[in-house]
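User: Hey, my collaborator sent me this sequence without any context and asked if I could get a structure. I don't really work with proteins. Can you help?
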Amino acid sequence: MGGTSSCCSCEDDTHALPDESKRPRRQSRPRRTGEFTISVDRTTGEGLGVDATPDQNMGNLEVKNIAPGGLVDRWNRSQGEHSKLVVKRGMRVVEVNGRFGSPKVLIAACRETEVLRITFMPADAS
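Assistant: No problem. I've predicted the 3D structure and written it out in structure-token form, which is a compact way to encode the shape of the chain:
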């Protein structure tokens, strides 16, 4: 989710994504308390500016770092001073544009050059 050539920097090899990374039919996922969704525009190919670690057991991505100037950092700065919609280290990416269930699916969705709706779960909710 960081860097210039991709939007996701993970400690997992995702160059050869299995069939599960292909866009599946939309399904619904029950929301947990404290989750929130942000919307960022990647149509220009700009990176999210987030480093994340895949968690195979939880089926999501743990946010390790938010790079200054990236799309998520700019989202954070656009929020009010006391907003609960600020992405922080330790939070988890649980859904991207209706896709969820495994880190590889989430990474593939984050790399799409479209408007991304990314759902985060607070660190204390995992």
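In plain terms: Residues 71-78 form the longest helix (8 residues). You can pass these tokens on to your collaborator as they are.
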